[in-house]
Structure formats: structure tokens, C-alpha cells
Amino acid sequence: GAGVSQSPRYKVAKRGQDVALRCDPISGHVSLFWYQQALGQGPEFLTYFQNEAQLDKSGLPSDRFFAERPEGSVSTLKIQRTQQEDSAVYLCASKPRGLAGGVTDTQYFGPGTRLTVL
Amino acid sequence: AQKVTQAQTEISVVEKEDVTLDCVYETRDTTYYLFWYKQPPSGELVFLIRRNSFDEQNEISGRYSWNFQKSTSSFNFTITASQVVDSAVYFCALSGGGGKLIFGQGTELSVKP
Fold it and tell me: What is the mean pLDDT of chain A?
């Protein structure tokens, strides 16, 4: 598949559990974004990677949220000690270029991971 | 601050009707990009169009057309002769600093046969 893939598609966690959500961007894409989409709302930015560097994490709601992209391809969003308010769809997007040349690039989204915290 | 407003939460039309989805944005940037995405029930955001702030020409793609008016900070989306398959949530988005997207709340379009 040539698109962005995410796994798992659905995750149910008990409050207090840690979860890890995976994103496989389009091959060769430099930029990777994570967004959180609450029910009935538009996606909201969480964090941005250019290759392996996390250049913007201003949208992460608390220090329980952590993201990494160690080799500049696959990324993992980790949520520690999940709370009910973390229930949402987590979307990953990638685009071909980084900041310098990629302002015009279109972001391509994965299908998302629906997280439900009980 | 940058902001996107989609005032229409839900729209319901009968097949073959034309429908316009409104989008109003706020930004202090002189160069920016606007986008429309479609989110069907499957959940994946599907890219529809990108428009830069220097290009105010309207665009038509099949049954879809977009009207960008910088003077009113609007980027409206019209579907002509709507079909049941157009039923989805549609999001307007603005490119923010660092390339991140700022989305509106979305408009849920329901096209009934």
C-alpha cells in the first residue's frame, strides 16, 4: 500500500493504562504530523517531525503524551496513564518535504486509531 | 491567531440538489494555503483541494467547485447535483506555522436519495 497506515485501528484501554499508537508514513516523506480528533470536532494538531527531529510539540496536551520517530520513518505516539478525556481518534499525516521546501505540500492522512478509555 | 470557522454544523439535501459549504478563516500571514478534506464514515481524511493565498481564481473539478475570496476571508465549496456518495463530513483547513493544519469544526453533509 502506498498510503499512510496506522495501527491498531481500534484500541480500548482501561483508565491508567499506557498505550502506543503506530504510524507508517508514505515512503520517503520527510514530514510527519499527529492530530487528535475528538468526537464531532475537527482534528487538532499535536506534534510535528521533520525526519527524526521533533520540531514542534506545542499541541501535546500534557506530559503524559510522548511521540518519537527514531529513524525518520515510522512514528509512535505514546500516552501514559490514560484518562477518559484522551478518548479520541488519533490521526497521522505525512508530506513529502520538510519546512524549507514543503509549505505548499499536501498532507496525506492515515485512517486513524480510535482510542476509547474506559 | 489563526482560526477556521465552518458555521454550518449539518446540512441535509435531496439528491441532485446543489449545496454550498461555507468556510471563513482568520490569519495574519500574507502567504498561506487553504484546503478542503472529506471524511467519509470510514474515518480517513481525503484531500480534495489546495489553494494558495495569491490565487483567487475559482476552480472547478467535475461536480465540485471552490470560490476563494480574500476580501471576505472565505473559501466556499459547492457540490453541484449532489449524490448519496457525497455524504460525509467536510473540513476546511488553513496552513499554520510550521506546516501544521488548522481545521474548522467540519460540516456534516447528508444527501438523501
Answer: 93
CA distance A92 to A103: 18
Cα–Cα dist A60/A66, whole Å? 8
Distance from CA of B72 to the nearest CA of A (A): 22
pLDDT, tens digit, for every residue of A21-32? 999 999 999 999
User: How far away is chain A from the Cα of B98, in angstroms, using its nearest Cα?
Assistant: 6
Q: Is the pLDDT of residue A90 over 70?
A: yes
Here the cell at position B29 is: 500571514
Residue type, B24: V
φ/ψ (deg, to 5) at A53: -90, 130
Residue owning grid cell 481525503: B46
Chain A residue numbers with beta carbons less than 8 Å from the beta carbon of B50 are 104, 106
Structure-model confidence comparison of residues A103 and B85, the more confident one? B85
Look at residue A85 and give its three-state secondary structure. helix
Separation in Å, CA of A59 to nearest CA in chain B: 10
Q: Does A106 sit within 8 Å of B99, measured CB to CB? A: no
- A 10 A CB-CB count for B77 gives 22
pLDDT in tens, A58-77: 999 999 999 999 999 999 99
Inter-chain CB pairs, A–B, below 8 Å: 67
